[in-house]
Amino acid sequence: MTVIHVPGSKSVTARALFLAAAANGTSTLVRPLSSDDTEGFAEGLTGLGYEVVRNADHWRIAGRPAGPAATDADIYCRDGATTARFLPTLAAAGARGTYRFDASAQMRRRPLAPLTEALRTLGVDLHHEAAEGHHPLRISAAGIKGGELTLDAGQSSQYLTALLMLGPLTAEGLRITVTELVSAPYIEITLAMMRSFGVEVVRGGPGNNVFTVPPGGYRATTYAVEPDASTASYFFAAAALAGREVTVPGLGKDALQGDLRFVDVLRRMGAEVHTTAESTTVRSTGKLRGLTVNMRDISDTMPTLAAIAPHASGPVRIEDVGNTRVKECDRLEACARNLRRMGITVETGPDWIEILPGTPRAAEIATHGDHRIVMSFAVAGLLTPGLTYDDPGCVRKTFPRFHEAFAEFAELMTRQESGPENSGQVPAARR
Ligand SMILES: O=C(O)C1=C[C@@H](OP(=O)(O)O)[C@@H](O)[C@H](O)C1
Ligand SMILES: C=C(OP(=O)(O)O)C(=O)O
């Protein structure tokens, strides 16, 4: 059995940074993710005048319920959509100040409009400097009264998360009616974490789509960040593909992240899955069946499945993942083109991809600067040696040590062949 310790969750770390910064008191984040996205978030907070102290395994944030200490700042959000969507929202709630936000070329292409329109509806003075609905933007903060909003989160749930977290920082609270929603489990993470920082959101309405967020602010806390379930998907998929077994501690029955449901997809394909209170184990049975699966809720794991799909005994069809076209790259096309380079037959539609069984050959993977394309195809590389990447370093977004950790893991899995006495642990979180 191979045990892999996966680094902390990006989504949980980003939310914890927002909530801790807004809270009354000093919060401690235990085992946060250290990666380009979360370090960019923390530096953005520092630029806004928050005090963030980063130690190796815990970060301390002095909360400022009144908003940023800086009254003007120029913040660079890098590639992180959580940073690029959550931080301007936090700054907008401040009592007074003018802030400019910009992001990488990749992030500038990604949409923001439903969020920035909602902020304008709430009276925030917000100006897009170049393309409407995209970074860079300029915000003048003067406090937010609150009120009613209608939101289309059919492109990204992050718009809703940003507005939910904003609610307690407004004078009267927010009532948000959501018309469309993708990546719904991320909203569960948001609601659970707001609860940990002292705020209870009431969810109701005919479609459970109305969120009432009370005013009153957040309470500081000590928050332990769980391992990243999307990152874990590479190790689960690798075990299922390579006929092995892997256990990921820290992701058990009570895990917050919906992406842990990726193991249910592997189970449907033939793997055995065992979840305890503390961990999840995936064990190959030697079978990998094709399937049709809706991944609307867990679309960050779509590339993981696409990369191993040629080895399934039948076609793999992944549906309802149209919003993966507006991530770090157009992931449906990136997966399709790279698989075709490897000699695999693939079809795509507006929101689906279908991959036929085949024997992949080595190729250069066009990463489009997307960490998930690299990490997903690295799994495929276990059975197709010789894959190369035009930008292997883009894994820094969520897992800077990915290549070393995955190589150590692959080596340990190879040793599993000769029996459990050769089991080992990969401390992937080590940097
Ligand atoms: O809220 C979050 O932390 C995230 C939500 C999801 O985005 P979308 O809601 O845009 O699908 C996910 O893909 C992203 O990696 C992280
Ligand atoms: C889509 C992703 O990131 P984000 O939207 O947070 O930039 C991801 O990590 O796969």
Automatic annotation (TrEMBL):
GO molecular function, a single term: 3-phosphoshikimate 1-carboxyvinyltransferase activity
Pathway recorded for this protein: Metabolic intermediate biosynthesis; chorismate biosynthesis; chorismate from D-erythrose 4-phosphate and phosphoenolpyruvate: step 6/7
Chain positions recorded as 3-phosphoshikimate binding sites: 10-11, 15, 156-158, 300, 323, 327
Subcellular location: Cytoplasm
Record Pfam families: EPSP_synthase
Transmembrane segments: none
Active site, renumbered: 300 (proton acceptor)
Protein name: 3-phosphoshikimate 1-carboxyvinyltransferase
